[in-house]
Amino acid sequence: MQSARDIDLVNELRAQPDEMEWLEFKANNADPEMIGLRCSALSNAARMVGRETAFMLWGIEDGSHRVMGTSFRPESEKIGKQPLQLWLAQRLQPSIAFTFREISHPDGRVVLLEIPAATGAPVCFNGTPYIRIGSATPKLTDYPERYQALIDRMRPYRWEGGIARQYVSGDDVLALLDYSQYFRLTKQPLPDNRQGIFEKLVADRLVAKDVGERWNITNLGAILFANRLSEFDDGISRKAIRFVAYEGKTRATTVKHRHDGQKGYAVGFEGLVAYLNDLQPKNEHIGAALRESHSMFPELAIRELVANAMIHQDMTITGAGPLIELFSDRMEISNPGIPLVQTDRMVDLPPRSRNEALASLMRRMNFCEEQGSGLDKVIELVELHQLPAPWFRAENHATQVVLYGPRMFADMSPDERVRACYFHAVFKFLSGDKMKNATLCARLGIASKNAAQASAVIKHAQEANLIRVADPEHPRAGYVPGWA
């Protein structure tokens, strides 16, 4: 497949009217200094014009773009005792993943050098950045306006735009992705022709045009809409959501249920939430006439936290994805990557996502709350159901949220009581109100005659600098978070 794609790629590059800022043709010139300088110039120029890749080709006649063949063999070229590719890699900074490929084109042997566009900083050769202007390759520093433009156009690498499956037919795209679910979830009518379908998929960056009438499926398209994640490589398949249910309170107890997700996040989300809701423990309450069964954890809280684990994970950590563990007294939801905001400020500060395109599309499909309001809703639901406060923590390059089942105040640990006090103060503050002894009593289920217990919790939270008196001159005015 790769050889067929490479031939199509060569033909598409030959079809360009002339050499471009990101494209150069050579016959047999194998001068290493020239190659290194061109790598810098083409990489920087590609970013300037909004391309992700630049190319050099040997064996193509300049002008006519006819395949003439080449004697250049990058694998056997040496500078002193060093292989050419190692020599280049040592002199290009920041390091870029350039690749040489020898292509057996029907009209002759071609060598293709594929050069990624600059991302974090201008690419330098021997400490100097170069740029492509027409057919010239001057120093970038000689053109300060271009240097500034390049800096402005560089951005951090976005995992969503990476390629999950390359050079696939249109039929394969439609077989690998559940495109009908994409249209249903985004509330768009399903087009009655293939061209209309692909126009929408391209617009949302789920697929991108490749060469030779083929397509690339992006990481975003695969992780959200794959019919089966296992049909993609480990970079996608290992990010499937895993679920484990234990019989008791520890991982040493018997595993009752285990499920490894197969569908893309968007395709499988509704089924996953329903599955979790069915399996979680139920508590029975006797109403006026009937015995009612209620889930231990609010479904909307689970929905929001699972969506957050999907959205905010560090996709660059390989071999790991979201993990949901259900114990007899709690649910733990983990994702790879430490949070980008402090764990005790995750409720009030706007979220920072590594995966902005993924987050935006998930919100469009109503899988989670509008930006900045999701965890507020979780705290509100936890308080409404009088559950212990959730625990947000970061450890071992992962983020974890623990939802606890119902627990009486007497059964809570001191840390759990203080955490509940802090989040209650945060919730009140975000609602334009202040926490008071009476509101904390109601939150923790403390009888008014035992209000001293709430006062003790407030004192411990103050000592931990988690809360403070809202107005020191009027102590009875209430309490606010320590950062307020």
From TrEMBL:
Pfam families, sorted: HATPase_c_4, SLFN_AlbA_2
Keyword line: ATP-binding, Nucleotide-binding
Alphabetical list of InterPro entries matching this protein: RecG_C_sf, Schlafen_AlbA_2_dom, Schlafen_AlbA_2_dom_sf
Annotated ranges, domain Schlafen AlbA-2: 19-139
GO molecular function: ATP binding
Annotated protein name in UniProt: ATP-binding protein
